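**Backbone shape codes:**
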Amino acid sequence: MKHLDLKPLLLGLLASSLTACAIGPDYKKPDAPIAPAYKEAGDWLSATPSDEAQRGPWWEVFQDQQLNDLEQQVNISNQTLAQAEAQYRQATALLRQTRAGFLPEVSVGGSAQRSGDGGGSTAVVGNRYSLSADASWELDLWGRVRRSVEASAANAKASAADLASVRLSTQAQLAQTYFQLRVTDEQKRLLDDTVSGFERSMQLTQNQYNVGVAAKSDVVQAQAQLKSAQAQAIDVSIQRAQLEHALAVLVGKTPAEFSIAPAPLLAVIPPATPPGVPSTLLERRPDIASAERRMASANAQIGVAKAAYFPSLTISASGGFQSSSFSDWISLPSRFWSVGPSAAMTLFSGGARSAQTDQAIAAYDQNVAAYRQTVLGAFQEVEDNLVALHLLEQQAQVQNEAVIAAQQSATIATNQYKAGTVSYLNVVSAQNTAYSNQRSALTILNSRLAASVALIKALGGGWHADDDSAKPVETK
């Protein structure tokens, strides 16, 4: 009997699987809303060259070495970042798992059994030894595996962008917290100076009262003013301690093992950050890149769902040795083998496949809407912080003028009180106004620094879509 030659058939099936088209729509990036220019950019940043845009360690633009050191610790020890890095490794492992679908699956097995049939004198007892290897390979004729790999690859890139986004958000949070702590140091210094000034005023009032020039009410007012300033100094100390604790957690430490000494605020003028062209925001924001990659993954899943309509074709092969005698187990007469293709197709599923396809299409539409919403939100963040920096700069100028005027008013009121031409109530009012204006100036400075960091974050920091910067970071 002539044996069937399967070689031409297998080669033909292999060629078909390699040249077959993938079912489902090929991915095309949808349009996103983009403005020709930023509405709030105005002329105030037009003179800033775009090549000053920060890449990499963007926080170095503030020229604060302690901030630089803390940012490096975030990249190593922050636990939120470690979670995102682990999720990225999961996504890349899933991609490798999906790619394994291109290759055949091979398994081996062996058994040794003793069995009996019947009972009494007619019982038949025998041994059976088996050693086999099996291989199967599903030909990707309709692109199901290819679309699955495409989806997993897009998800892995989305996870990489998520990691970059978490890193950028954590770095920005640390910078804003650090600047708030330094502003709190300046507030504490201001309060200490204010307390010292109020102590001198109280001593002056006490001396005036001792010689019968001032009333007892003036002394009481001076004491109340001094105690109020001392109470505010304690409140600022509480705020500073809590900010220090927040910094400790951001760098992956317990508050007990972390401290940062008071120091002057170095970044008294926020650096100019050119916003660039709006269209570049799509490449500079990792969250936008993540949303776009998830959209591509959802598109590939449509092909996976549609491939279920077509039959699956599998080539299987098995071989090994099987014998009832251990001594003849591994011998040529005990050998067996089989090879050949098999096909399977679902003829009726009660609408399940159609529902799965509709679900995949709806999921894609959802991701398209999410992508466009992410783009809109990104433009809003940029515009919000551009206008904040613009107007806060003007507010700071006006507030500084108010500080100078209030300080002059306090000096005049104090001199008039010494001369006996005004009551001490005038001094208290002028001094409190001066202190209030100085504290407002510090609050505005903190808002400007926070908005400067937020703008850098809104512009994507040092991340770029072409640079796959979401590589695993060293974590503890």
The longest strand covers residues 124-139.
